[in-house]
Amino acid sequence: MNKFSLHDIGLCERFVQEAAMYEKSLHLARISVQHRDIYQVITQYGEFPAEVSGKFIYRASAAENYPAVGDWVLVDRSEGVSGNAIIHHVLTRKSSFERKAAGTGYECQVVAANIDTVFICMSLNNDYNLRRLERYLSIAWESRATPVIVLTKSDLCSDLGQKLPEIEAVALGVDVLVTSSLSKDGYDNIKQYLQPGKTVAFIGSSGVGKSTLINKLLGNEVLATQEIRADDKGRHTTTHRQLLVLPGGGVVIDTPGMRELQIAGADLSSSFADIEELAAHCRFNDCRHESEPQCAVRKAIAEGTLSFQRLESYKKLQKELTFAERKSTMSLQQAQKQKIIDMMGSLKTCRQMQAFNRKNKGNK
Prior knowledge:
By secondary structure, the protein is α/β, with parallel strands linked by helices. 34% of the residues lie in helices and 21% in strands.
C-alpha cells in the first residue's frame, strides 16, 4: 500500500507531541467520515472503518467527547486489516465548530474539528438572511477558525450591488467572496485558502450550493448535487459530514445543511464588535440599550449608522448564549450524577456511603 504524508492533511507538531504521551503501539489517524457509531479514519497507509473502544465509551461524559470529522485520533492499527480499527483517544482540538444538538436536550454537537477556515455559505436567492448570517459568524468566531463568507448563486441575484453593503455591514473584518454556479468567478479566490496542511469546512443551509462548490474544487463530481426547486429553494443533498482530500493538498470538510443552528457557544465580541464598541460609550456600564439616558447604541440607531434589527439580533443571541451556558453547567452536573449512579447504583447509596465514612472517621 502506498504511503503518503499526514502533514498534507493537517498533521502538525502539536498533535505529534500530544500523541507521544500515549502508548507507543497506537497510530495517528484523522476522522474522515462519521456515521453514528462507525467512523472512517485516514492513516498514512489509507482509509478504513473504525469504532471507539469500550473504555472510551465509559470515559466519555458527553457527546462532544466522541470523535468528530476532522479530529486527530489514536487507533490500534495503521492499515485496514480484518475488522474495524479501534479508536482509543481523541487528541485536543485546536478549533471546533459547535452547535447545540437538535432536540430538547442540551448536548453540544461538534460539526467539524481542527479547521483553519470556515466557509459560511449563503445563496443570494431565497436563502439570503442577514440575521442567520450573524448567528453563523458568532459561532464561527467562537470556533477559533477564521470565518469567510461565500455568497453562492450570484447569477440568480438581480440586486447584488444592494446586498453586498448589507453583508459587509454585519461581516466586520471578514472576507466576502461571490460565486456563481454558471462560471468560475470566485473559485480562484477560494483556492487561496486551500493549501497543503490546511483544513477548510463548508457550513450553511440546505441547498446553498456547498456540494457544487466542493466538486469544482475537487475537479470531479464526487458529491451528489440536485437542481434548485421551482420555489427557488435548494434541495438537501449531503447526508453526513465528511472530510475530502484535495488534489493540490489540504482537505475540505463538507457538512449537511443545517435547518436550525442553535447556540452552544458564541463570540459576540467579534461578530458584533460595532455594537460593543458603541456600548463602551454609554453612560451606564450595564446599559440595556432600551430607554436609558445617553445610550450611545440608541443614538447610533437614531442617526442611521446602526440598524434596529442588528441590535435586536445581538440581544437575542446574548439571551440564547446565557441560557446555553446555564444549561451546559446543569448538563455537566447531571453527567457527574449519572457517573456516580453508574458506579454506586444510586445517589441514595452514594450518600449512605458518605455518611458511613464520616461516622467511621469520627470514631477513629
